[in-house]
Design brief:
single chain; 304 residues; alpha+beta; eight-stranded mixed β-sheet; 2 helices; Peptidase_M1_aminopeptidases; zinc ion binding; Aminopeptidase_N-like_N_sf; Aminopeptidase N-like N-terminal domain-containing protein; signal
Length: 304
């Protein structure tokens, strides 16, 4: 019996080794290289790992988003300042369910010039939720660039990414709001990004909206610009360096109540117009709790 068990174990090990060898051979035979894989668009993708390479890292995102709450679609324009750590022709980052319409590379120092940017070829690998932006020439280590990406997508029906939420008024009217939940890996559903916690960067958020709506984000609003067609564009202050999953914004028709702690911290509570009268208790409790923790931890400076 013992000999039979040992024989069965040996056969099982040999079968597993055979399957593994076929898998490795098949991958190498298909791509010809260990660092290339084939995405669904048929073009060779320059990265075969789930985790992003660190040859290029983000410094700051300037992100402008316009959600249309009637069509439940959104458009976006972002400028990512990147730093090249190693020579490469590819910028690999995350994107899920987004249509990339344009990707352009600009030297950081030529931002104010009239020179056209360099068009980047967009390669997609949906299985890994990644895209690769291919430059015509090698990006030299130590340089900074701006990657300008135009994209659009649809507000998600679930509760992650940039998604559509609804509520009903007292009259039974259904109203739509657009909000985000990026934790742990859903920022890539809202904008192309380096969607891993180690790729920390600053974020400057801009949101376009109708006049009947408001926009909120991580940081205080610093200005509002009126655009053609009656749209408004809210600009928010730049965040501290943080991971993509901490980015948050919302477009809605909520109303707010505000108060200030004894140390000057402004506290706001937002709710739908029908529920606005119920927010005062929450505001009172929030101010008291914040003041308590300010004293308990001896902290009077809070990040927004």
């Amino acid at each position: 019996m013992a000999s039979l068990c040992r024989l069965c174990s040996l056969v099982l090990v040999l079968q597993l080794l055979h399957i593994y060898s076929l898998g490795v051979y098949g991958f190498k035979h298909q791509t010809g290289k260990n660092n290339v894989t084939s995405p669904t668009n048929g073009k060779l993708f320059p990265w075969n790992k789930m985790r992003l390479p660190d040859m290029v890292v983000p410094i700051q995102y300037d992100l402008c988003v316009h959600p249309n709450l009637t069509t439940v679609h959104f458009t976006g324009l972002e400028r990512i300042e990147i730093f090249v750590r190693e020579n490469t022709r590819f910028i690999v980052l995350h994107s899920k369910g987004l249509e990339i319409t344009s990707a352009v590379l600009l030297p950081k120092d030529d931002l104010g010039s009239s020179k056209p940017g360099t068009q980047l070829q967009v390669l997609e690998h949906p299985a890994h939720e990644q895209i690769a932006l291919q430059a015509p020439e090698v990006l030299t280590a130590g340089q900074r660039f701006l990657v300008v990406i135009e994209f659009h997508g649809r507000l998600a029906d679930g509760f992650d990414g940039f998604y559509k939420s609804t509520y009903k008024t007292r009259d039974g009217e259904t109203r739509i709001i657009a909000t985000t939940d990026f934790e742990p890996t859903s920022a890539r559903m809202a904008f192309p990004c380096f969607d891993e916690p180690s790729f920390k960067a600053n974020f400057a958020i801009m949101i376009r909206r109708e006049r009947k709506h408001i926009a909120l984000s991580n940081m205080p609003k610093i200005k509002t610009i009126e655009l053609e067609g009656g749209l408004l564009e809210d600009h928010f202050d730049v965040t501290v360096k943080m991971s993509t999953y901490l980015v948050a914004y919302i477009v809605c028709d909520f109303k707010s109540v505000q108060a200030t702690t004894s140390s000057g911290i402004k506290v706001s509570i937002y709710a739908s117009p029908d529920k606005w009268s119920q927010t005062h208790y929450a505001l009172e409790a929030a101010v008291k709790l914040l003041e308590f923790y300010e004293k308990y931890f001896d902290i009077t400076q809070f990040c927004y």
